[in-house]
Design brief:
This protein has helices at residues 32-40, 93-105, 115-122, 128-139, 143-153, 156-180, 191-209, 212-220, 234-242, 286-301, 360-375, 387-408, 413-431, 437-444, and strands at residues 10-13, 20-28, 53-58, 64-73, 84-91, 109-110, 222-228, 260-266, 269-275, 304-310, 328-334, 350-351. It is α/β, with parallel strands linked by helices. The chain has 3 domains: 10-127, 2-Layer Sandwich (Gyrase A, domain 2), CATH 3.30.1360; 142-211 and 384-432, Up-down Bundle (Four Helix Bundle (Hemerythrin (Met), subunit A)); 221-375, Rossmann fold. Mean pLDDT is 85; it is low at 248-257.
């Protein structure tokens, strides 16, 4: 373990920047108790661990700043692994800033974004995937995103990648022992046995890579586009789903010129719902043409398309199809209150009236079923990777994909060992076994200050 005794002691407000009943000031580092003692007249170093103690905090002139509850955590039994003091005071912003200013005046350094969690990682309290789980936990907006963040925070992703890395290490050790000590007559774990082990690791990596889309959906939401001709009720549908008048509704074709995006929670998954400009064959309006071009682009990129039609009008010769293999598409027939044209009779579609509000329950049920099918597996685990994990896994898988044909063709074991080491290093980056300041800087810069 590196020596952290000379690093700065950091402090920050650990609660939201808004008035509240209670606010929290956190101090962490080798001088945490000394700083808190100066703030409270010596009450920190004599406080019982993990027990709240009533303390008054004064400024340098003896003026009372706040009456707080002080809790101390002695390292390594703390969140950061260092000595930590937490002041729970009145949640007014002026009060909390005064407490922070006092801590800084007593020798603390203002913490940067994610610095407390970064210290937890550096002290071995968390691996890198767990630290990212903390960030996901803070930003989660739905039940499933919260559950996935908890699973990552508990280390489930790190455990799976570390197990694969350990398996690779065993394979490498056996191969290199055979290369380095042929006189010891060590039986190389090659051929069918080694190939079987590598194929198992390969499958693990592919299974994890397959969760990339799910991870994006859980973190960012399902990109959902309402798509159709002018005056089919796209803006009315958006307003109905949101529960308030967000988009302008008019009988004039081309009212929606640009896309409007809002979010709703549907069945525990975030829907990023976009109302697009209506699509028609001909228009001389340059602005409307640009709106239609953007609508088509959004439709092609969407995870889910709600293709809206006027039920009272004749069914078109062809209905839209998914733009890519992972896209889901639902056919919606609006204005069912005006009667349904006979050409729609045998069409599998969701029938509704945005004017009357009928059919919305059926639509929400269909959305939930589609989203669950797209976003989740069997419901037992929500482990899912982010873009950084995806890059590491792809590099590890590429090395494995290179090593396996070499093994089957009987090539030099040294070359195979090199590929396996590259795969192992790539997997090590996921949990932070092999890290760089650049990687850590990018990850922890996304955190809020105080965490």
């Amino acid at each position: 373990m590196p020596d952290f005794s000379h690093r700065p002691t950091i402090a920050a407000i650990a609660t939201a920047a808004a008035p509240a009943a209670v606010g929290l000031l956190r101090i962490s580092g080798p001088q945490a108790f000394a700083i808190a003692d100066t703030m409270t007249g010596g009450k920190a170093s004599t406080a019982s661990e993990r027990c709240a103690r009533l303390c008054r905090v004064h400024d340098g002139n003896g003026q009372l700043l706040d009456e707080t509850l002080l809790t101390v955590f002695r390292g390594p039994r703390s969140y950061t692994g260092e000595d930590v003091c937490e002041f729970a005071g009145h949640g007014g912003m002026l009060v909390m800033r005064s407490l922070l200013s006092r801590a800084l005046a007593c020798g603390a350094t203002l913490a940067g974004p994610g610095e407390f969690t970064q210290q937890a990682f550096l002290h071995g309290k968390l691996d890198l995937t767990q630290a990212e789980g903390v960030m996901d936990l803070i930003s989660a907006q739905t039940h499933y995103a919260l559950r996935a963040a908890h699973e990552q925070r508990e280390g489930k992703l790190g455990q799976r990648t570390e197990h694969a890395r350990d398996e690779l290490l065993e394979c490498i050790a056996h191969i290199e022992a055979y290369i380095d000590f042929p006189e010891e007559d060590i039986s190389p774990d090659v051929g069918a046995a080694l190939e079987k082990r590598l194929l198992t690791i390969q499958k693990t990596l592919r299974d994890l890579l397959a969760t990339a889309d799910r991870g994006r959906i859980l973190r960012e939401g399902v990109r959902t586009v309402i798509f159709g001709a002018p005056n089919t009720g796209k803006s009315s549908l958006l307003n109905r789903l949101l529960g308030y008048e967000r988009a302008i509704v008019s009988q004039i074709a081309g009212t929606t010129r640009d896309s409007i995006e809002e979010t709703i929670n549907c069945g525990g998954i975030l829907l990023r719902l976009t109302d697009t400009a209506g699509m028609r064959d001909h228009t001389s309006d340059v602005i409307e043409q640009e709106g239609m071009r953007r609508s088509q682009q959004l439709r092609d990129q969407a995870d889910l398309v709600l293709a809206l039609f006027d039920a009272s009008q004749e069914k078109p010769a062809t209905l839209p199809q998914p733009a890519h293999p992972h896209q889901h598409l639902l056919i919606l027939l609006n204005k069912i209150d005006c009667g349904e044209h006979s050409s729609w009779r045998d069409t599998d579609a969701i029938r509704l009236s945005c004017l009357l509000g009928s059919g919305l329950e059926a639509l929400e049920s269909a959305l939930t079923r589609t989203i669950m099918q797209q976003s989740l597996d069997d419901g037992h685990s929500l482990v899912s990777i982010n873009a950084r994990h995806q890059d590491c896994l792809r590099r590890a898988l590429h090395s494995l994909d290179t090593a396996l044909p070499q093994l089957r063709s009987g090539e030099d074991l040294t070359l195979i060992s090199i590929e396996l080491r590259e795969a192992m290093d790539a997997l090590g980056e996921i949990a932070g076994k092999i890290d760089s300041d650049d990687i850590l800087g990018v990850i922890f810069s996304r955190f809020c200050i105080g965490k």
